[in-house]
Structure formats: structure tokens, C-alpha cells
């Protein structure tokens, strides 16, 4: 008999499947502290949670029989995936079940914002018949900017079109063809902030998306724009938004999610007449809660019964002998993918992966997963893992070309990656040097020798005297210390690159100052 613990309020209809299973005993205990959960989790084969239960490393360690953790929802921010992977615990989620509810909540917020419904309701029930203060705006012929055109963003676009809105969508994975299929105009964040009357964000929270709608974007924003966030707190900079509202640039905002949840009673959104809020209710519908509970219950049953399952968000099992050969390449593979994603511009179309030398004789599909994880995490954040990396690439029409060749350019092993986007094609090669660890040995076919770790600056420029000095002066003036530096060129005076390991994160203003130097082409910061 398998024992399943449900530790958050989850739809009873959704978990009926577990109740009906003759080989499963279901226990429900909600509101447990970490200590209380640790004290009982040792008896259970599976744990089913929503977002309240924090499934920490301690909980995983106490769960000595635990085979699976199921999250009835999308975000797995409350589950320590690394600890689960280390202990061989499969973590699954329900990525599709609450898409429509969250999309509809976004629209409810958008319309409430356009017509001041919460503010008008408050006054009316307070006894005031105020028909002057709440002049709204129509949606028809207005521009909606959608940042993040995944599951929810695409559904929002479809509904906006039914309201006669013009939609501009931005997503690094959205090609012109997909935009056309969805009936939206593909634009940049800049296009959205300068042209949109309503802006809604639907990305995960990653290093790249944190504060992606911030001070700089509000400074360029179309006057009177309205902002909606039903994705994750922190994608829109809350302080910068308040300043923009108070300065009269932004006409109003509707937020379901906050940088800190729940927000404190002093949070400026809570009593501002132009801001409307809900307590993370995007997925709170009968249907969504039933859907996610059904999806996750089905998969938990498969895992417990040792049957094939889907929606795993952590690592697949790798046979021991293969693991031994591949393990030394895991980190370099992922870092190479991340490196290349960070320096390549445009919508991703193809990833070419070539293994040579001693890597030609082994099944490298796990390394492919690490590479894809590195590439895709840059855009999709912590939602990407070794189990779903292939699927995510495929579902976004990213073509993966795997090759093996004997040409090693003198190295015992070599991994060469090429990313093709709608704007450019860039490549890097990396190796594991016996006794010296991982090295990037070529960038766009320029030979280099770079340790893939920490913070790097990658510069493309024209090979002219004085370039190194000018760059060093700008970094020195801004207190950025250079640890190592590599210069690569093919011909004297031609195109060249510089790669620098620096001791700290380089502020955007400093990167802009470097980009403005004569003969510079591109300057990118890479964080590994
Ligand atoms: N409020 C709620 O209750 C609720 C419910 C469900 C989901 N969510 C959240 O909504 C968000 C979207 O969920 P989804 O199911 O549509 O996810 P999804 O993975 O289908 O879509 C996210 C999209 O964001 C894009 N993206 C990543 N980085 C980007 C960037 N820098 N700029 C533009 N686009 C970028 C990705 O390419 C992807 O297409 C997630 O943060 C999710 O956790 C909130
Ligand atoms: O209501 C919930 O369970 C959170 C929903 C949402 O944030 C998710 O990530 O699925």
C-alpha cells in the first residue's frame, strides 16, 4: 500500500482518483509547520502540495521513503528541486491546468482597471453615488503589450483580439511565423513600453525578467499606460511603478502577485487609489484547482506504480556506467549553453551540438539535456530542468541538430555549440583539460582560453591600436577589476574579440560606456 500525504488545501474532486485507487492510502493534514511535516513525512511515499507547504531540504531528508512530490500548479518555487534531485525524488507539476483561469483573471484585472470597478464599488457600498470620479477607457482600438507569449500570454492575446485590441507581443522564443499564427505583432520591450496602452507580463521570474519593467522602461512609457501583473512579483519593479503612477506617467496598475507575499500592511499598493490588488488568485477557480489536482494525481499514481509519467521537473535516471563517463562534463555543458545564450541576440531557431574525441563513443543525450538546460534557462528560468529541456525546446519549435565527429583540433574531447536565431549565428567550443578543468577554447572560431565561471565581459570590436587601453581605463574608472583577459583575431586590423574575467557584476551604465567606445561592435556581460 502506497501512502500519500496531502498537505495543502487541494480540490477533493481532483484527488478522487487517489481515493479510488485500491493500492493507495490518502492522508490530509494541512497547515503543518516544517518540524511537524518532518516528523511525519518518513511514513509517506508521495507528498502532494499547492504553494503553501515549503518542501525544504530538511523535509526531503526526513522523507526517507519519499518517491515523488506533486505540485498542484505551475511554479515549483516552494520545492527544493536540487535536494529532490540529489535524493532521487521526482518532482512533478501541472503546467497546463490553470492557464485559462490565470488568463481570465488577467482579463478581469485589465477590465477592472479600465473601468475603476473596485474603486467605484467601494464608494457605492459606502453610501456615495459618485458618477463623476470614475471615467473609464474603452479597450477597442487600444494597444495591449504582452511580455511573455507562453501558455498564458498567448491565451490573453486571443481574448484581447476579441475585444478589438491591437496586440504587440514580446518573447525571445516567438518567431515571426508564430506571431503571425497568433495574430499579434512581434515587438521588443521598447516597442511595448512606447506604444502600449495596457501592458501585461506573463514570464517566469528569472535574473533576466526581474525588474524588466523598471525605471528605464517607465521613463520611456506612453503616458497613461496601465500595467497588469498576474505572473510573479518582481517582474515589474514595484517602487519604480509607484513613482511612475505618482508622476502621472502610469494611469493605474492591477497586481495579483507581489515581490513579497503576503505584502506588509505598509505596502504602497494597498491604499493607492490607482492600484487594484488581489491575493495571488490567478489559479483560484473551481476548474483550475480540479484540473491541476487531477493532472498531478494521475502522474503520482504512475510514479508510485513504476509506470511512465510526464511533467517531471527534475532529473531523469541515468545508468551508472554512462553517468560515470559523463558526470565530469555536466557543469561545462550547462555553462557553455548558458554562455552562448547570453551572447546571442534574437529568437532562437536552431541549436547545433557537436561532440568529438572521447565523447564520440558514449551516449551523450544527457549532456544534450545539460546544454539545452543552459541555453533555455537563460530565458525560461528555473522552470527548465533536465527532464523537460528537450520537450521545451521542441514545443518552442527550436530545432536541435546533434552531431559527432572525429576532428578534435588537438583536444582529447571537444564540445562545439552553435546557436542560430532570426538575427545571427554564434558558436563556442569547450573542453575538459586533464588536470585544469573546463575551458572555453573558441568563440565564433576565434581561439581563446577562458575558464567558464564567474562574471565575464565579451567584446566584439575592430582590431585597432589602443582598444585594450581604452577598455581598461573605462573599467578601472568604474572600479571593475580585470582578473584575466584574452584577445582573439583572425587577421591584423580585422574583426576581433576580447574576453575578460572580471571580479564583480558590471553595471549596465558601464557596459553602455564600453559600447560607445570607437571601433566597438558589441559588449556583453556573461554570468556563469
Ligand atoms: N497568478 C497566478 O496564480 C499564476 C497562475 C499560473 C501561472 N502563473 C505564472 O504566470 C507566468 C506564466 O506562466 P505560463 O504558464 O504562461 O508559462 P510559460 O512557460 O508557458 O510562458 C512563459 C513565457 O515567458 C517567456 N519569457 C522568458 N523570459 C522572457 C523575457 N525575458 N522576456 C519575454 N518573455 C520571456 C518564455 O519564453 C515563455 O514563453 C509564470 O510566472 C507562472 O508562474 C501565475
Ligand atoms: O494558487 C496556486 O496554487 C498558485 C498558482 C500559480 O502561482 C502557479 O504557479 O501555478
Automatic annotation (TrEMBL):
PROSITE patterns: ACT, D_2_HYDROXYACID_DH_1, D_2_HYDROXYACID_DH_2, D_2_HYDROXYACID_DH_3. It comes from Marinicrinis lubricantis. InterPro entries: ACT-like_dom_sf, ACT_dom, ASB_dom_sf, D-2-hydroxyacid_DH, D-isomer_2_OHA_DH_cat_dom, D-isomer_DH_CS, D-isomer_DH_CS1, D-isomer_DH_NAD-bd. Keywords: Amino-acid biosynthesis, NAD, Oxidoreductase, Serine biosynthesis. One of its GO terms (molecular function) is phosphoglycerate dehydrogenase activity. Belongs to the D-isomer specific 2-hydroxyacid dehydrogenase family. Pathway: Amino-acid biosynthesis; L-serine biosynthesis; L-serine from 3-phospho-D-glycerate: step 1/3. Residues 456-528 form the ACT domain. It comes from the Bacteria. Catalyzes the reversible oxidation of 3-phospho-D-glycerate to 3-phosphonooxypyruvate, the first step of the phosphorylated L-serine biosynthesis pathway. Also catalyzes the reversible oxidation of 2-hydroxyglutarate to 2-oxoglutarate. Transmembrane segments: none annotated. It catalyses: (2R)-3-phosphoglycerate + NAD(+) = 3-phosphooxypyruvate + NADH + H(+); (R)-2-hydroxyglutarate + NAD(+) = 2-oxoglutarate + NADH + H(+). Its EC number is 1.1.1.95. This is D-3-phosphoglycerate dehydrogenase. The keyword Glycoprotein does not apply.
